[in-house]
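pls design
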C-alpha cells in the first residue's frame, strides 16, 4: 500500500521561523570567524563571545537550516552501541572521556537554556538502544557494562515500553530531547546580544592562512585571528577530510500520534523513535532507512518503508518528512581541534556520526577552551590529526569505495540512453564528451547541468524524493539548477 507523503519539509524548520539576516554588511575583520551556523558553530560562537572576543558567524544559508535543523534531535550521551567498541579500540579511559564530554554537553544545554530563558521544549527522557533479536542480547549486556564502567548512567533492562516485542535494551537515564532550531535561534540571539555578528546567505570560497587567516567569500574577505570551520563537511580542501569522512543520509518522518515515553533506537536497523509536542499537537518522529549519500537508490521507496514502520509506533498520518547528512570518521570519534598539523589558528569540528546534538555541543565547548588557550582533558581523543594503523585500513577501504562510485557513475552514464523525461523525473546521459544531468520539472521545463561534481569530478545521481543531484564520492548535493546545497563542493554545477 502506498502511503501519501507530503513534500519534504522539516518539522523543526517549519515551526520555528527565523529572522532574516541576509544582506547584512560583512565586516573587514573579527577576532574569530565561525563558518557554519549549526549547533557546533553557534556553541563555539556563544562561548567565545561570552569570553569577550569579537565573533563573526557566516552561513551559506540561514541559522539552523542545515543538518542541525534536520535531525531527530535527541540530546543524549547514548550513541547506539558505542562504548564497548570504543573501550576495546582505544581503552577504558578514552571511553570515559568521550562519555563525560557528551554528558557535559547535555547538561550544558539544559543549564544554559534555563539561564538564558530559551524555550526549546527541552524535556528529560530515558534513552534506550533495544533489539528484537535474541542473538543481540550479549552485545546489549556488554554495552551496558562498558557504558556503566565509563561512568555513564547506564544499565540493562528487559522492559522496553514499545508496541513491539523486544528482548531487552541498554538504558541511559535522564537524557533529553528538544526543539533544535528553537534552541539555536535563541543561542544566535544571545551571540548577537554579546556583540557577535551573524551574516547569512554568504558562502566561504577560500582561506588564506598566512600572514593572518583571511576568509574569502562571495561578498568579500574577512581577516581574523582564528577561523573555525563547522560546515559539517569541511569546506576547504586541506587536511584530507574528503578522504577521512564517510557519508550517510538519514531519512525521518513525523506525524500526529501518541509517542512512547522515552527515546528509542533499534540496535540492528537503527530505526529511531521519539515524541514531540507542539502546542496541543503530539507528534511521533521516526528515523531510519540510511543509505550512502549519492547512491542511485530509490529514496522515495525508502520513505515509504519508513512511513509504514511509523504506523507501528503510533503515527496516524505523515505530516512531515526530511533527511540529513551524517559524517563518520575513520575511528568513530569526531574530529575537533586544529584543522591540520601545520596550522595554529584554523580549527574544525566534524564527523559526529548520527549524534550531532550532543557531539556538536561538546565540540563547541572544546573549541571554546582550545581557542581561549585553556587545556582540555579530551583534546587528544578528539584531535583531528590523530592516526593509527586500524584507521589506515579503514581509509584504504573508503578509498576503494569512492573509486568504485567514481567508475560506476561514468559507467551508468555511458549505458544510459536519452529519453523523453516525464515531469518530476531525471537521468544522467552522455552527450558527446559531456555528462549531462537532465531533470524535467513539474512545469514541464527541462533543466540540464553538468553531471560532474565540482568538488573532485565524480558523477552525481538523482535523489527522487528531494529532487536533488547528489554525489556519492564525498556527499556534495546540488539543486536541479546546479546551485550548491551541501559541500564539500563550493561551486555550482555549470549549465550543460
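designed seq:
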Amino acid at each position: 500500500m502506498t502511503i501519501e507523503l507530503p513534500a519534504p519539509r522539516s518539522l523543526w524548520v517549519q515551526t520555528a521561523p527565523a529572522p532574516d539576516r541576509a544582506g547584512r554588511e560583512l565586516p573587514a575583520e573579527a577576532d574569530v570567524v565561525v563558518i557554519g551556523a549549526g549547533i557546533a558553530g553557534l556553541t563555539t560562537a556563544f562561548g567565545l563571545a561570552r569570553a569577550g572576543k569579537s565573533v563573526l558567524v557566516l552561513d551559506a544559508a540561514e541559522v539552523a537550516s542545515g543538518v542541525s535543523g534536520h535531525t531527530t534531535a535527541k540530546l543524549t550521551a547514548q550513541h547506539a552501541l558505542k562504548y564497548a567498541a570504543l573501550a576495546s579500540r582505544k581503552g577504558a579511559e578514552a571511553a570515559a572521556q568521550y562519555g563525560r564530554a557528551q554528558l557535559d554537553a547535555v547538561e550544558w544545554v539544559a543549564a544554559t537554556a534555563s539561564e538564558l530563558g530559551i524555550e526549546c521544549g527541552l524535556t528529560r527522557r530515558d534513552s534506550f538502544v533495544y533489539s528484537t533479536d535474541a542473538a543481540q542480547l550479549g552485545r546489549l549486556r556488554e554495552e551496558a557494562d562498558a557504558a556503566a564502567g565509563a561512568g555513564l548512567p547506564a544499565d540493562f533492562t528487559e522492559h522496553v515500553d514499545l508496541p513491539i516485542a523486544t528482548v531487552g535494551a541498554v538504558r541511559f537515564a535522564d537524557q533529553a530531547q528538544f526543539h533544535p532550531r528553537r534552541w539555536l535561534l535563541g543561542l544566535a540571539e544571545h551571540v548577537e546580544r554579546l556583540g557577535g555578528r551573524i551574516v547569512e546567505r554568504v558562502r566561504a570560497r577560500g582561506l588564506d592562512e598566512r600572514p593572518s587567516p583571511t576568509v574569502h567569500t562571495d561578498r568579500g574577505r574577512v581577516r581574523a585571528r582564528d577561523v573555525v570551520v563547522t560546515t559539517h563537511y569541511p569546506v576547504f580542501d586541506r587536511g584530507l577530510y574528503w578522504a577521512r569522512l564517510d557519508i550517510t543520509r538519514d531519512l525521518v518522518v513525523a506525524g500526529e500520534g501518541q509517542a512512547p515515553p522515552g527515546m528509542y533506537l533499534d540496535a540492528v536497523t537503527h530505526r529511531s523513535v521519539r515524541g514531540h509536542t507542539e502546542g496541543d499537537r503530539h507528534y511521533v518522529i521516526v528515523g531510519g532507512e540510511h543509505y550512502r549519500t549519492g547512491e542511485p537508490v530509490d529514496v522515495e521507496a525508502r520513505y515509504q518503508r519508513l512511513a509504514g514502520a511509523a504506523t507501528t509506533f503510533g503515527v496516524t498520518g505523515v505530516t512531515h518528512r526530511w533527511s540529513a547528512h551524517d559524517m563518520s570518521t575513520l575511528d568513530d570519534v569526531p574530529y575537533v581541534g586544529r584543522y591540520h598539523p601545520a596550522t595554529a589558528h584554523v580549527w574544525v569540528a566534524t564527523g559526529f556520526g548520527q549524534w550531532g546534538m550532543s557531539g556538536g555541543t561538546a565540540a563547541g565547548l572544546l573549541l571554546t577552551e582550545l581557542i581561549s588557550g585553556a587545556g582540555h582533558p579530551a583534546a587528544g581523543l578528539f584531535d583531528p590529526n590523530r592516526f593509527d594503523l586500524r584507521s589506515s585500513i579503514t581509509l584504504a577501504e573508503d578509498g576503494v569505495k569512492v573509486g568504485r562510485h567514481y567508475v560506476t557513475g561514468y559507467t551508468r552514464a555511458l549505458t544510459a540512453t536519452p529519453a523523453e523525461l516525464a515531469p518530476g523525473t531525471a537521468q544522467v546521459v552522455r552527450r558527446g564528451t559531456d555528462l549531462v544531468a537532465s531533470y524535467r520539472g513539474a512545469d514541464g521545463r527541462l533543466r540540464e547541468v553538468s553531471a560532474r561534481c565540482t568538488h573532485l569530478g565524480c558523477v552525481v545521481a538523482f535523489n527522487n524524493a528531494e529532487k536533488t543531484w547528489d554525489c556519492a564520492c564525498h556527499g556534495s548535493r546540488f539543486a536541479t539548477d546546479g546551485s550548491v546545497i551541501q559541500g564539500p563542493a563550493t561551486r555550482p554545477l555549470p549549465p550543460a
